[in-house]
Every structure is written in structure tokens, then in C-alpha cells.
Amino acid sequence: MIERFKYSLRQNRGFYGALLGLIVLYLLYNSLHPRGFSTAVLIQNANEAVVLAFVAVAQTIPVLIGGLDLSVGAVMTLASCIASVLVTGSPAEMTLGIILSVLAGTMFGLLNGLVVVYGRIQPIIATLATGAIAIGLALFVRPQPGGDIDGDLNWAITNAVFDFAETYGFADDGNAAWLQPIAWIPVPLIILTAVMLLVWVPYRRSVTGRTAYAIGSAEGAAYMSGLPIARAKIMAFTLAGFFAGCAGLYLAIQTSSGNADVVQAGEYTLKSIAAVVIGGTSLLGGVGTAVGSIFGAFIIRIIEFFFRINIGSFSIDPLLQTLFQGVVLLVAVSLGSLRLTRIKNRLDVFR
Amino acid sequence: MNFYKSLDSDTKPIIIALGFVIMILIVGTIYTLSTQGTAPLLRPSYVLQQLQVGSFLGIVAAGMMMVILLGHIDLSVPWTLTAAAMMATTVGGPMAIPTGIAVGLAVGLFNGLGVAYLRVPSMIFTLGVDQVMRGLMVAHTGGYAPDTDATPLMRFLAAEKIAGVPVAIFVWIAVSLVIALILQRTGFGRSVYATGNREAAAYLSGIRTKRVIIGSFMLSGACAGIAGVLLAGYSSQAYQGMGNPYLLPAIAAVVLGGTRILGGRGRYLGTVVGVILIVLLNSVLSIMQMPEAGRQIIYGSVIIGMLLVYGRNQAVTS
Amino acid sequence: MANGSPIVALKGVSKHFGATKALENVDFACHSGSTHAILGENGAGKSTLIKIMSGVLDPTSGTMEMEGKPVSFSKPSDAVDKGIVCIFQELSLVPDLSVAANISLANPPKRFGLIDHKAQNRIAEELLARINCADVNPNSLIRDLSLSRRQMVEIAKALGKNPKVLILDEATSALTSKDVETVYALLGQLKADGIASLFISHRMHEVEALCDTLSVFRNGTHVETFAKGTKSDADIVRLMIGREVGSHYPAKPNRPRPAPFLKIEQLAWERALKGVNLEVGKGEIVGLGGLDGQGQKELLLSLFGVMRGLQGTVTVDGTRIAPNSPAKAKADGANIALVPEDRKTEGLMLPMSIADNLIAASFNKVSNGPFIDGKKEDAAVRSAVEKLQIKVGDVENAVSTLSGGNQQKVVIAKWLMTDPDIILLNDPTRGIDVGTKQEIYKLMRELAEEGKAILFYTTDYAELIGCCDRVSVMYDGRIVSELEGDAITEEAIVAASLNIGTDGEAA
């Protein structure tokens, strides 16, 4: 076990680097924040980070096979617009709405996969086009921003476990002794963890998931070894759609509304790529994990949070926020080029 | 049909795209004739007006093509364009236009250095540069539209007409001639194709591939700069986010024109046809008063549909 | 030995690639419990044969039977399911996955429907122990292993599929001597277990030591199959070559050795070059010999400015040069040309036109200022096509439409257009038909007569003997022997390649 960890440490420098960066940044952030290390701050941060985290996970899988999904932001928007219409009414209706929203994202991802595999169109350009279609559909569903998502659901999902229990009246309205150790944890983090455990972990340990890594690393070797390449590619985009759907659903519940906002969709797509790279996944494919991308997404959000702190000696001009983020991104991705200094045969640069 | 088969694979996409252009014209005209009894799409003044707006996209796409031919991409175009426009209006006077172009060249140089020397994937490097440029402009303007105005020359180039033809179209033609000349008639242009096809082989042929990459990104930056200057002239002002609507249509125009997204193949003429296709598609959709939702869906479907048609061709020839 | 019915039999199998006939009407069989060598020159059809047997390629015509029943494979995994497992030269390992994951790549052990990492590691450990590679940690990534270790993992992966027929394509070429012995022992064990092993190797002594049956292929046909010991080595070589060697090489001029033009002193790079000393004069063709991977390719790339961190000196005509890119190497002062190893990925931009490929190294020669002069371009392309007699329909066609031989001519013509003083050739005749080979030999001699200095690496001993004025044999990053004139014999080259010759020590 220890030995496996040692190998893991050496083989996933990017991943552990991101984890370390996340911890350092978050500790720093909390110690500068006037109400640092409090549940309130954690809940607020979690709510703002979890959507990007889902989108980053969505982006990770196509990137692992050496592709790119430029439609994740749009699919997220589509799912959130559908959710803003459907997630209302009786508990049964809401449940159905939740399922349908995520299913819509998943089906859209499946469509992407089919276009890429059977249409033989490069993923980047195929998803550029299907992204427009997704935004169009979202606009049809919700021409004007708005929505009437159940208020209880919004409250329960965007707060701590205690509030969740209180809202739905179990565990003595959240006061049961056994609940106390976890009562402070924000629900969004629990949802994120649960979805990752139920979907990402099994996927990673399936032949289809392994094939995704193999395709990104050496597609020829994957073919020679008899791995199911077409299936794995379709699955990669389908899962991307699923996770983008989860992101959209959460976004809708969190904001109690849907908004078919093209600019927002594009921003989420681009930030998802940045999160994936910061999380240690190679854009060339084959290396990385979705968990790293979650860390990447959190890092991006925390950097944004820094600009909100405004106490005494420490404050950053919010006007510099974008510039600062861009510089951090450039520095982070340029660190990878340190490997170039070790290359002795200049032809190896091209590989 | 024999004629069609005899075409080489670089020309076929252009022919297909031209076919789509004609189809859009026909469908659009039938629609306008049946609903309004007029045929604006066949009126030269209307078409020229559309092309005037399209020329900004055309110039951006020309630069983007240089980069896509290498198998790279330039996502920094939106804020390179905006930065060029803002700096041009800030500086003002006779130096306004050179300043705008210089901003574009400088950003392109920076992109090129990152991609060629650091070997960071252009997708992510130019994305970072875009954010940095945006950050610089936000810091420069405080997040508002700058209150400086475009110079008269900028307005002339973007909004005036010579003999009924918008000057912007002449600028687009000039840029097109330069890019086409570079691609077809210079060693640099041929090196772009060679590097885009197989970088290792180009390198071993003694082509200075790093310079080729840097040069292409600088051209892309310069084109974005020119487009920014023109757009500021057209609107009399620079404004936040003015470059955003140009990135994806530019990539789409290049790809629809038959340039391979992985690099190495494509003709400049195709990019021009791709731009016209997108401009016409947009104008027909606005004539039809198509809601934004329908526009986006049709837009995406047309791209996918055309690429499927191209793909089928490749499957047969290979 | 060949008793009973064969486990695999090919009947009348042909494989054509366009106009090239890689295999023509081949009947071939192998038996369980036999170690069966397949011999033949490059391009004899050995690789095509095993690719058909292992489901990578479909035969153009003919049938294949396994244990008497007809089979056809549409993909490699079909062949694996039937028990035909191939260890390919180009590795089928995924570099970013662990050793254990690679060994159980397509059929991992599962628990509750998920991949069981523990069981996977256990399987890997067992298989690695079986081939004396217990030192390889199953958790290592393939990309962190040496080439030799990777090859052993490849063998472990193949064994894990429980093959009935195991095909080893040059499987020992990358191995260290310790691993080679392990593989020898393994093959003996497989034979005892009743598995049919097909063994492809260029090393005669390996074939002698390991195999019981030998099949010779030549120009895509199956010449003969016989038991070991029934034919002498000389007979076997004659079967492989099919006719006398040496007749189709142009005559070598008889004259004193010219003064050194290119001079290499104590050239060292990483672990591949350990102090190379070599001289090439104008008008000379100097051959580089030795087994594959003794530093020959690295030497050529070093001279061409590709390698970083070189030690030692290189002088051209008395002036020291140290190019840091091919662009500098081809420029005035050095005037070096390199015909690279892999024409498809390093020599040519395959989808581009013949004309574009031809001028890719000489834009300055066909330009006025920055602009390419169409007339100059046409003239240059035409003269290149004529000079090398490249068989083209239209120079605007993609270079990928040409045959292998004509493609290689395009690479050579591209470099001749730069008018180089020094020409480095890295195995230029690999995978090329005999006719074109002869044209290339003739061209090389003509170029030498024009005063070019030529350094020529080839894996084919016959070419070293037939073409070269001198031959320098490399072993482990050094030149261990320099042969000249009549001393260039197959025996001398082979002995020097294996570094067993005590005479003729010149380095």
C-alpha cells in the first residue's frame, strides 16, 4: 500500500502538486478572511466551486482520450434550463425533473460521441458545433432567464448537512447526536463526492475507463491489444455530458433559475480546460484524473475568492483579478515545460 | 460527376461550401419572395452591407487560418482584438492604427514564444494570454468602455464607402491578398504547411520550425489587431468584450473552408468562402427573424452537416 | 518436430498493397511443440505473414486454418481469442499505464465488476517471475522502463494470454544479454509445453541455438521449409538472397584514399556515443556497420545538429562546426544533408505534393527575395525528377501516392537540391524494391565521383560490401573496426559487429 502510494506520488506529480497548491491557498485564504475557518465561509465557497468542479470533471474524460469537449459549458446550460422548468411541484415531479435534466446532458454527450466516432469529425470542431446546438435548445426551453425551483430544495442543497436534515425533518431535524460529526459539511461537497464515488471510481476501474487512458496514451497499442476503442470514445463523451448535466442541475437549484447565457457557457468551458490542466491532466491525453480536475477547479475559484477579502492591510484591487488569474494560469501551464530541459535529442520534442 | 471526382481533396470542401452558399441564397430568396415579395439577398447594396460586417470576421479568420494550418489554435483573438482597439483609440492621432497592429503583433509574438519554445499546447497557452489581455484591459479601463474615440482614418476604413463599396471590404481584400501571397508564394508559407503536416520532417528538412510557429502567431495577432482597429472605427469606439463574437465563427469559417483542424491542409480561398457562408447564413436567419434559439441550432447543424459531407469524401478517397 | 497435423496452416495466401505484392500465393504451416524460425531479407514478407496470422492485416486472397478449421480474423483480438499471440517489434504497450495494467490490459481480473488491482498485480508478479524479471515493479509505468525491460513486459503480456501459437518478431533485438538467455530458456519451456513458437530473427546464431524448423522467405514467396541441420549456413544464405551477391553494385574506383573532409574526433553523447573517431574524404563512401542500436543513428543525428549536449569535435574541411539545428547543418559552412531513418515520419510530409516535398529544404534556391519564383520552382522540380528518374504522373500529386522506392527518391532528391558537400544516409534502401535499390547504389557512386563525402548507415551487410570504399563497424557507441578494400568481407563485418574479432582492431 505504502509502496503503491510512493509510485503514485512519483507518477502523478501534477495531481499532488495541485492538491498541495489547493491546501496552501485555502489555508492562506481562510487565515486572511475575517471569518476564516467558519462553516459559513466554507458553505459559500463550496456552492460557488462545485459547479465548475463538475464541469471540470466533464472535461477531463474527453481530454484523457486526447480530445477536447468545447460543448461542456453549453450542455451544462441546457441542463440547467431544463431543470429550471422541471424541478418543481411534488417530490415525485421534482425527482423526475432531476433525472430528466441529468439525462438530457447525458444524451447530448452521447450525441457528441456518436458524431465524433461515426462522423469521423475532430472532437474539438464537432463539439464546437454541437455546443451551439445545445445553447439553441437551452434558449428554446428558457427564452428568458427565470425559473421556479422549489425553495426548500434550494435551501437544503446549498447549505450544511444540518440544514438539509432540518428542511426535510429527519435525524431529529438535524439535531441527532450521530449527525453532529458531519452536520457542518456543506451538502454540495457531499453531492460531488457521492457522484464521484458512484460514477467516476467505477468508471476508472472498468475496461472502458482503462481504454480511455490507453487511447490517449497510445491509440495504436490500444488497438493492437484488442481494447474497445469506439465504445470507449463514445462513453467518454457520454460521461462528459452526464457530468455537465450534473453541473447544470446544481447550477439551476443553486440559483433557483435557469439562464441560457452564451457568455457564461463559454466561460465555463474555457475554465474547465484550465482546471483540467492545473489538476495535472495532460492535454495530449493518457495522463491525469478527474479528482485532480476538481482540485484545479477549486484552485481557480479560490484565486477568485482572494479578491473579495478586504481587511486592513490586505486587499487586492478587484480590477486586477482577471489579470492575476491569467498570469497564474500561464505560469502553471508553463511549469510543465521544465521537462524540455532534460531532452537531449531534439527530435523527442515533437513526440 | 467526373469533374467532381477529378478535384483534389483541398478543392472539394471549397466547392461544397460554395454549393451551400448558393443554396442559402436560393432558400433565403424564396423565403423573402414568398413572405415580403422582395429579394434583398440578390440586391448588391444589401450584399455589400453584409460583407462590410463580414469583413471584420474575414480578417480575423485569415489570421486564424495561419495558426490552424500549423495544427495550433489562437484563443487569444477576442482580447487581442479588443486590446488593439482600446489602445488605438487611447493613443489616437496618426499613430492609432500602427499602435493597434503593434499590440496584435506583440501578443502574437508572446503566444508564439510560449508555443514554440515552452511547447505548451496552444489551446491552453493562448487561453491564458487571452485572460491576461482581458485583465490588462480591465485594469486599463476600470472595466468600462473607454471614453476615447476612433480616429477619422479608422472610421473611414471601417464605415465609409468608395464608389458605393464599403472601404472595409477593400481592407479585407488587401489582407487576403497578403495572406494568400504568403501562403502560396513564399518559403515561409510553404514551411507553414510543412510544419503543420509533420513537424519532425519539416525540422529535419532544415526548416526553422520555431520561427514558423512564431511568425504564424504574429500574423494571427496582427489580423486580430487590424480587425480591432476597424471594429472600433465602425462603432466609433472600443468597448469591453467587442472581440468575443469573433472567435468561434472565425474557427468555424476556417474549418468550413476545408482547412484541416489538425493542420497541414487548406486553401485560403476556402476560408474566404467559409466567411461568406457564415455571414450569409447569419443574414438569412435575421431576415427570417429567426429567434436566437433557432439560429444557434441551425448554425451548429450546418457545421456538423457540412463536415459529415466532407468526411464522407475522405472515407472514399483514402 | 513436424509431426501430426499443423496447428496453423496458410493456404495460397497473398497480400497486395496497391501494386506492391508483399506476399504472393504463400503456403505455410507450423506445428505444436515446435520452435520455428522464419528467415528472409528485409521486405521478404515476414512481417506481412505474421501480421496476417495475428489479425492485423487481412489477406488479399487465400485462407488460414487453425487445427484444421478455417479461421479469419478481423482484428488482433480475434487472433488472441483463438490463441495466436504476437509480440510485435513496435511495442503494443501503453506507456502511461502501469506494468500490471498493461499485462492484463484487455482482460483484467475483476471483482464486483470492477478491475481488481490486487489480483492484477499478482498476475503480473507471477508472469514476471516466470521470465526472471521479478525486479520489475508491477506499479511502474511503462514509460519509466528501459527498452529491454519493456520488451520483457511485452513477453510477459503475451504469456498471460495463454497462447497456443506465440510469434516473436525480432523480440530479442532490444534485450540485454541476460534477458536474451531468459528468453532462450523460456522458448525451451514453451516447446516442452507443446506451444508453437514462430521466431523471427536476423541473428543466425540465435536461430541455430533455438529453432528446430526453418522457413525461408524471399520477395513475398515461401521458398522452402526444412529441419535444422539439413542445410549449411551458406545454403540458407543462398536461399534467402536467391542469387549471387555483389553483381548489382557499381564498380568501385581504384585510387588512393582521399584527404579527410569530414573529421569526427572523440564524439560523445549521452550513453549512445562513447568517443567516436571517423574520417570521410571527398569522393568517398564510408559505410557504418554493426548490429542495430550501437549508436549509428545517434552519430548521424549528432552530425546533423539534432543532439543536445555533444562532446568532442567535428570539423569540415579543417573548420570546426557545431550546428545546433538541421537548418544550421545544411547551411553554408557545413553543407550537410541527412536522409533520415523513417521516410514516412521524418523524411516526407506525406499528404503534401511531390513538388512541395522536393523544394522543402531549398526555398532559398527557388526564391527571389522572400518570394518563390514559379519558374525556378518548376525547373528545379523537373530537374530533380529527371535526375533521379522518379516515376511520377503529376508533381502536384501527394507524395503518399508514390511507391516506397519513389518516395525515398524524393527524399534524396530533396537533399540533392541543396547541393550538399556531405551526405548522411540512414538506411536509405529499407523496404525498397531491388530495382530502385540498384539505382540508389549507382546514384551514390555518381555523387561520390562528383566529390561528395558520403556516410552510409545500413543494416544490410551486402550493401556495406558492395557500395562502400571503407566500412566502420560500431559496437556499443564506439567504432571497433575499420575495414578497407578487400578486407571488407561478410566474416570481418559480422565478427566486428559482435565485437569478437581480435584482428583488424583499428579504432
Q: Mean pLDDT of chain B, nearest integer?
A: 91
Q: What's the helix count of chain B?
A: 14
For the largest beta sheet of chain A, what order do the strands appear in spatially?
A: 1-2
Helix content of chain B: over 70%
In words, what does this structure look like?
The complex is a heterotrimer of chains A (351), B (318) and C (507). Chain A is an all-alpha fold and 351 residues long. Chain A has a domain at 37-273. Chain A contains 16 helices and 2 strands. Chain A has a two-stranded antiparallel ribbon with strand order 1-2. The longest helix of chain A has 28 residues, at 91-118. In chain A, 51% of the residues are buried. The mean pLDDT of chain A is 90. Chain B is mainly alpha-helical. Chain B has a single domain (13-24, 49-317), classed as ABC transporter involved in vitamin B12 uptake, BtuC (Orthogonal Bundle). In chain B, helix 2 runs antiparallel to helix 14 (292-317). Chain C is an alpha/beta fold and 507 residues long. Chain C folds into 2 domains: 8-241, 3-Layer(aba) Sandwich (Rossmann fold), CATH 3.40.50; 260-497, P-loop containing nucleotide triphosphate hydrolases (Rossmann fold). Helices cover 32% and strands 26% of the residues of chain C. In chain C, the strands form 6 sheets. Chain C has a 6-stranded mixed sheet with strand order 6-9-10-3-11-12, sandwiched between helices. The longest helix of chain C is centred in the middle third of the chain and has 16 residues, at 177-192. Chain C is globular, with a radius of gyration of 25 Å. The two termini of chain C are 46 Å apart. Mean pLDDT of chain C is 87; it is low at 501-507. The chains are: A mainly alpha (351), B mainly alpha (318), C alpha/beta (507). Chains in contact: A-B, A-C, B-C. The interface between A and B is large, with 53 and 55 residues.
